[in-house]
Amino acid sequence: MPLSANTRRKRSSRIVVTLLSALLPIVLGGGILYLQAQRTLEQSSRLTAEEAIRQFDLMLDNTAQAAGILLPLAGQPCIDVNLALREQVTRRPFVRSTNLLWEDILYCSSLFGEIEEKIAPGDYNEGQLLLMKGNPVTPDTALLVYRLSKGKQGAMSTLDGYHLSNILRLIGRKTLLLLQVGPNWLRADGQFHEGPLPDLPVAQTTLSSQHYAFNVRAGFPEGETWRYIKSEYPPLFSLLIFFGVMSGLIGHVLQKRSTSPSIEMQRALEAREFVPYFQPVVLGESKQWSGAEVLMRWNHPKEGLVRPDMFIPFAEHSGLIVPMTRSLMQQTAELLAPVASAFEQPLRISVNITASHCKDLQLINDCREFLSHFTHGKVCLVLELTERELIEPTDITHRLFEQLHELGVKIAIDDFGTGHSSLGYLRQFNVDFLKIDQSFVAMIGADALSRHILDSIIELSVKLNLGIVAEGVETEEQSEYLTARGVGFLQGYLFARPMPGEQFIKALTAH
Ligand code: G
Ligand code: G
Ligand code: MN
What is the pLDDT of residue 147? Predict the structure, then answer.
């Protein structure tokens, strides 16, 4: 049903929408935090690389100075300059050894004294720097060689890899740092490698020194962004969760509101989903159609045709019943107007009216509007007021009923016998018809007591000069019984069930 049971079917989609509205801020905020974390890591990676370059530059300055001082001595016999070579090693904290060359032949070393070793200037990156795996003295400790040459003279000073890996390790505490010199590179653990630099998964930055021929690459291991978010953003993350919960709650409440009965019915009213069905009322004697009761149906787009018991209570509660009835009358008028001129007798059209519709004089305009579609004497409008909710007699209601009668509108008391209207009430409102409730009709031939009540209702209405309509006539026996006692109008499945407008019009012309 459109207002209660279908909420179960919609529940799953409601849960989905609620979850989505909760997830949206979390996902969006999470995305923003992720980008922010990435930016922070990139910045940190760049700063680390810059700092490493600064430190390496300082060390190399120190190393280069040694070579610069020794270069003019190149060419002199090793025995004469050996002391000067050793002095530089001793004086300078980072210099491990010093060497002199003549025509690219290393002929004097602070470590070995006089030797003879050909070197290939091409091995040196930009002729200047060479990263080596080790030397004959310490084969497992990398070292960096700085070369300076001028004509045939050459000087080289070496820097211990231990200092280099120290820098890589100390500066890049949380960052991965690599030092690259030409085709070789060094890691923070002091390991020497040949070949291209490996890619660092997160926030990779590669910078070159402005002064010496080396590069530094900084970055982070896989998954660092999430680790960073987890360690740095817990308060922001809690805030996101809070927003998610709030947003989910708001989504939930808004959905509840949008599926509330009155909002759903307001939508249906605008979409003209409330349509009239017609149940013919026949004359007791001839069984000819004398008119019809207009019964509201909800032509729901998903639920199909909905009976009024399922939604009229909601409509009455929200006050929507008044515009809904107005729409029903309008549709009925539009439907009947084209065929009404052919009616020989006035067709009695009964419309169910709730008590709340009688609170002001608006009802008169609605009836006048309805009747304006027909030439005089073609249609007789009957308003059915249920006996279960009686109208309080006030000044307004008296004027209302007076003016309705002036318009020629008739009043019927619906479901008569189930409520407790007094005779005074019937006279006060100038009632024209009583509709005997179907429960009494159903008892015909079955229950002697109910039959007595039925008989007294019929007697009463004869005395009060009221027309009687018997509802819910289903058998020939009931029909004969009622006709025999002078009930003027019969309505029930025996004659016709409620039917849609076009079917009613078609059947009407046949009758
Ligand atoms: O025909 P049906 O079984 O659907 O009618 C069920 C109940 O709904 C009946 O009591 C009938 O009076 C009521 N009803 C049908 N149409 C209307 C309407 O347009 N307005 C009001 N107030 N009640 C209606
Ligand atoms: O407005 P009122 O309460 O009189 O509405 C009439 C109700 O009775 C509608 O719900 C209509 O569908 C229903 N009805 C009409 N004729 C018969 C009938 O012969 N038998 C039964 N059981 N219900 C009927
Ligand atoms: Mn009715």
Answer: 97
DSSP H helical ranges for 319-443 = 321-340, 362-371, 395-407, 423-428, 438-442
The residue to mutate among 471, 477, 499, having the most atoms of ligand 2 within 8 angstroms of its beta carbon, is: 471
Q: Is the CB of 354 under 6 A from ligand 1?
A: yes
CATH class of 270-510: alpha beta
The pLDDT value recorded for residue 3 is: 54
Helix or strand (DSSP H, E) at 470: strand 467-470
Q: How far is the CA of 153 from the centre of ligand 2 (A)?
A: 120
Q: Which residues, including other chains, have CB under 8 Å from residue 284's CB and lie 6 or more apart?
A: 482, 483, 486, 487, 488, 489, 490
For ligand 2, say whether the CB of 493 is within 6 Å of any of its atoms.
yes
Looking at the chain, the number of H-run helices and the number of E-run strands are 15, 21
Q: How far is the CA of 307 from the centre of ligand 1 (A)?
A: 8
Q: Where are the beta strands (DSSP E) in 225-366?
A: 274-283, 289-300, 304-306, 347-353
What's the pLDDT score for residue 1? 45
442 CB contacts (<8 Å, ≥6 apart)?
472, 474, 478
Nearest atom of ligand 1 to the alpha carbon of 279: 1
Q: Is 295 in the pocket of ligand 1 (CB under 6 A)?
A: yes
Indicate yes or no: pTM above 0.85. Answer: no
Please report the pLDDT score of residue 450 as a whole number: 75
The pLDDT averaged over each successive group of 10 residues in the chain (511 residues) is: 50 86 91 93 96 96 96 96 95 94 96 93 94 87 95 96 93 91 94 94 96 96 91 87 92 78 86 95 93 95 88 89 95 94 91 91 94 93 87 87 94 85 76 91 81 86 89 94 93 96 90 76
For residue 6, what pLDDT is reported? 47
- 65: exposed, middle or buried (Cβ count in 10 Å: 0-12, 13-18, 19+): middle
Position 149, amino acid? S
Nearest atom within ligand 2 for CA of residue 491:
16
Please report, for the chain, the start and end positions of each structural domain, with discontinuous segments joined by +.
61-159, 270-510
User: Strand 105-109 vs strand 95-102: parallel, antiparallel, or unpaired?
Assistant: antiparallel
User: 61-159, what's its fold?
Assistant: Beta-Lactamase (3.30.450)
Q: Whose CA is nearest to atom 8 of ligand 1?
A: 308
